[in-house]
Design goal:
The complex is a heterodimer of chains A (about 70) and B (about 290).
Chain A lengths: L2 H13 L7 H9 L13 H13 L2 H6 L3
Helix pairs in contact in A: 1-3
Chain B lengths: L1 E6 L3 H4 L2 H12 L3 E5 L11 H5 L1 H16 L5 E3 L2 H16 L1 H12 L11 E3 H9 L1 H7 L8 E4 L9 H4 L9 H8 L3 E2 L15 H4 L1 H17 L4 E4 L2 H18 L7 E3 H8 L17 H6 L2
Parallel strand pairs in B: 1-2, 1-3, 3-4, 5-6, 5-7, 7-8
The chains are: A mainly alpha (about 70), B alpha/beta (about 290).
């Protein structure tokens, strides 16, 4: 796996999203009358634990951390 | 009122909230209520995840589908990549008992089970089939007269045709028909069916190649004399909008072609405030385009 793709995978391990929220997006969401943090794993830490649990169960962490 | 579970994905909520706002607002005008899928994750992306590990891709997609099943609502999404993952995973899991059993072993550890009880629809299908273009046309209060639009279909909405079943993959017309229902002109351009350049993990791995494709696509649109381009996928939207800034900065190009998402365009034609639709939040200014609309 290329380093760039490893980085994308690591973001999903950390945030549950390949493109996580940032401060600019939070401000825009607020201005547009959306919830400041979207109702995804970003708002539900227990959901992120479940996502990471699935990634572990399928052996994805080992694949991502495997040295070529 | 018809409920749909709105699968947000990553790009709309976290980079282009205007797409989310415009989709919620414009669909509600037609009695479609978009429900939150609480705790949904990345779809996961078909290029990066689907290419590297089938079980991870399927299991994570199945979890997102199951969250909607637990809400008793079909899924809709505004991303071709999310649509590719969720529609395809749903198709595979419905038709292959071995895949379904294995995925349910993973999900069972977390008290969930895939049932195969729902459909996954791209928001384009809601506009064309659920609402219908005639109904949209009748509700337009601010027709987009004289606006010349290049529509961009992207790849995953149409392909693979065997599972998508949306007709011609070479000469689709649904987005052209949609644009006409808003009073605008859909302008043909060279290699209209070409990829935006971002998909398949290319943007993440090799931005130079991704941008080269984006530039070719933009040049073809500009050569056709369009006022803007319309996207129906939030990832293509990012590539075609921010990609112009990247091209301008890296290669001293001068791209300034406004990029508008399909539900943002519909919102304008329905008389909504452009600011509330997030049209001033793009990387490339839409101001000139908005001034052109009577």
């Amino acid at each position: 796996m290329r380093e760039d793709h490893v980085r994308v995978c690591q973001l999903v391990f950390k945030h549950g999203h390949a493109v996580p929220i940032n401060d600019d997006a939070k401000a825009t969401r607020k201005r547009l009358a959306l919830s400041e943090v979207p109702p995804t794993v970003h708002q539900y830490p227990e959901a992120l634990k479940e996502v990471v649990g699935i990634l572990e169960a399928t052996g994805f962490r080992a694949l991502v951390e495997k040295k070529e | 009122m018809r409920n749909y579970a709105y699968f947000l994905g990553c790009i709309a909520p976290n980079r282009y909230p205007g797409i989310e706002a415009a989709t919620r607002k414009s669909l509600s005008e037609f009695d479609i209520n978009l429900l939150d899928i609480k705790g949904a994750s990345c779809c996961p992306a078909p290029g990066v995840f689907g290419s590297f590990d089938l079980w991870t891709w399927l299991a994570l997609a199945a979890r997102n589908i199951v969250l909607a099943e637990e809400m008793n609502a079909d899924i809709t999404t505004t991303c071709n990549g999310c649509y590719a993952t969720l529609q395809e995973a749903n198709h595979l899991l419905k038709h292959n008992v071995n895949l379904r059993n294995r995925v349910n072993e993973f999900l069972g550890k977390f008290g969930r089970q895939y049932q195969g009880s729902l459909e996954v629809k791209h928001a384009i299908e809601l506009l064309s089939d659920e609402i219908g273009f005639e109904r949209i046309e009748k509700k337009v209060t601010r027709p987009l007269k004289e606006v010349r639009i290049a529509v961009h279909y992207g790849c995953h909405f149409l392909k693979p045709s065997e599972t998508r079943m949306h007709g011609s993959v070479e000469r689709p017309t649904v987005l052209d028909d949609f644009v006409r229902s808003l009073g605008a002109k859909s302008i043909d351009y060279k290699d209209k069916a070409m990829c935006c350049g971002a998909g398949g993990g290319v943007r993440a791995a090799n931005l130079e190649i991704a941008l080269d494709m984006t530039a070719e696509k933009l040049d073809n649109m500009i050569d056709a004399g369009v006022d803007c381009l319309m996207t129906s996928c939030q990832f293509c939207h990012l590539q075609l909008d921010r990609g112009q800034v990247e091209l301008n900065e890296k290669y001293e190009r001068k791209y300034q072609l406004p990029v508008v998402f399909m539900t943002q365009l519909m919102g304008i034609a329905l008389g909504m405030d452009a600011r509330e639709l997030g049209l001033y939040d793009n990387a490339i200014s839409t101001e000139g385009l908005l001034k052109k609309i009577p």
